[in-house]
Amino acid sequence: MIPAPFEYYSPSSLEEAIELLERFGEDAKLLAGGQSLIPMMKLRIIEPKVIIDLNRVPGLSYIREEGGFLRIGALTRYYMVEESELVRRRYPLLHEAVSQIADPVVRNMGTVGGNVCHSDPANDLPAVMLAYGAEMVAVGPNGERVIGASEFFRGPYQTDLRPGEILKEIRIPQAKPRSGGAYLKLERRAGDFAIAASAVQVVLDSSDRFEYVGIALTSLGPTAIRVDAAEKVLLGRSSSNLSSINEAAELAYKAAEPVSDLRGPEWYKREMAKVLTKRALLKAVERARSFTG
Ligand SMILES: Cc1cc2nc3c(=O)[nH]c(=O)nc-3n(C[C@H](O)[C@H](O)[C@H](O)COP(=O)(O)OP(=O)(O)OC[C@H]3O[C@@H](n4cnc5c(N)ncnc54)[C@H](O)[C@@H]3O)c2cc1C
Question: Considering the entire predicted model, what is its pTM?
Answer without folding.
Answer: 0.98
